[in-house]
Amino acid sequence: MSKTHMNIDIGIKEGDRKKIAEGLSRLLADSYTLYLKTHNFHWNVTGPQFQTLHVMFEGQYTELSAAVDLIAERIRSLGMPAPGTYKEFSKLTSIEEPDGVPSATEMIQQLVEGQEAVVRTARSIFPVVEKAGDEASADLLTQRMQLHEKTAWMLRSLLE
């Protein structure tokens, strides 16, 4: 069975699709790293806020789990391969992994920083997305930024 390569003609030049996919790959890496960090903290949180944080972190990592699928599928829709290994994610992410098990307060602080990092990464992709007229990627980025900004605010509120 021969493999045929079909040209992609969605109104976005190949070079632009490649640049957008590179940016979305960084977003995917940040989102997956934040997912992993949030899941880790869900498992390991202790202290008087245990119940509240355990449930909150579960909601956050569940949402991130769905988000990584959407981001990866957008990359594939642009005709590019999506990164999918720890090795690739560790090269692409801007989010640091924790050493050991931080206190509940430190967990919240690290997750605020992680949520904000995802927003910055999403925002950094906008110029190439807008220049290319890629409304679908712009819509995805806008939704991700709104969600992560709101989640960062909610987490920050626990620290005040």
From TrEMBL:
The record's annotation in InterPro entries points to: DPS_DNA-bd, DPS_DNA-bd_CS, Ferritin-like, Ferritin-like_SF, Ferritin_DPS_dom
Q: Which residues form the Ferritin/DPS domain?
A: 22-160
User: What Gene3D superfamilies does this protein's entry cite?
Assistant: 1.20.1260.10
Q: Which PANTHER family match?
A: DNA PROTECTION DURING STARVATION PROTEIN (PTHR42932:SF3), GENERAL STRESS PROTEIN 20U (PTHR42932)
User: Record's family?
Assistant: Belongs to the Dps family.
Q: Which named protein is this?
A: DNA starvation/stationary phase protection protein
Which organism was this protein described from? Bdellovibrio reynosensis
